[in-house]
Amino acid sequence: MDSLRVLRYALAEGRLMFRDRQALEHHAKRLSTRQLRWVAAHSPFTAQRFRQAGLPPSEWRHLPPTGKTEMMTHFDALNTEGVRLEDVLRVARRAEDSRNFTPTVTGRSGALTVGLSTGTSGMQGAFLVGREDRLRWAGVVLRHLLPDWPGGLWRPHRVAFLLRAEGGLYRSVQGRRLHFHFLDLLRPLDQLVAELSALNPTILVGPPSVLLALLQAGATARPQRVVSVAEVLDDEDAHALTVGFGPVVQVYQATEGLLALPCPHGELHLNEAHLHFDLEPLPDGLMRPVVTDLRRRAQPIIRHRLDDLLLLGDACSCGLAARRVLRVVGRQDDALELPSQDRSGRVVVWPDFLRGALARITGLHDYRLDQCGPHELRLQLSPLTAETEALAVQAVQVALRLHGVDVAAVQFECGPLVAEAPGVKRRRVRRTWRAA
Ligand SMILES: [Zn+2]
Fold it and tell me: What's the topology of domain 335-431?
């Protein structure tokens, strides 16, 4: 029965891939009216937000945004299933420890899938997904990711997921012709390489850092489609994966929802048929999204500000009306903050610019850049040679100077690249220092 519902959602999704912007907005408005009325009546925390702002649910677009901290602090009153955070955390952690990923808690509507987000700083996020939300998610993903829709439905597909914690979510799509294989990231690399090569999946899904590590360790596979998830996909990595495995597309998913999906032309589009995006402009053309999920009910996401920054592109050649994401620039709290040339204060430098500068250095295979103090940058380089060190420092200095940073005041510390713990989300550029 579940696979029939997934198929129904996948077929319905075809009608939601609007080519007319007005039709898309009309559809989203209709969903939002119903969703906001329901959520305000069933989520005590959301009702309280409306009361505090003195707004009726119809005025939801004026609601002051919340963030991950509030979402976790008010988890018990935010969800509409009467589930407590402590129960979710207990179940999810036990599942991660035992590497047995079918964690559920029981809410008002029945069994709910739970999971933890791989937060690298600050508070760990927990998510809660109801049955209907899960089946719809599976249908939407299926419709957008199957390379040969709809014929692909009748051909056998082997889908390999390389994930830290598979989560019950991905199980939903299991069908007669779709075979899902979960390769646990915490297993030794040589075992993963052997398994992936033997499986030779038609669709390969995983974080780009892991897919690259497998490629470099000798994995062979010729999938029809490589799907990058969970991390920012750099152009250089996309290129290496295309050459090594096959065509790469990106899915942008977070605890907050399925935010963007690839189109038939391989570009990333906001998932505007199911989520509403308000965009807050920042310097350098960047946008910070405030999202409202127009469907999700167990854990409503209403005017929720994301950590990530986006750069949006012009209309896409595929003709879809949903806006195109040129790149997911990364988390705002990873932006460097360095002293300015005119000594007036501090300058913000987005990770994307530094990734761009470091990616162009010939002979440098990989790197990490961390702002570990008010004036201190730590560079980890692979390989670390006198030449890569000189070129890397110079490239970063040029990028910083362009942004108006007082480069003479910035100290560099260089060392060899230290491997990250398995399963840790990779961020090549980050700021671990926090102003007091
Ligand atoms: Zn497109």
Answer: GMP Synthetase; Chain A, domain 3 (3.30.300)
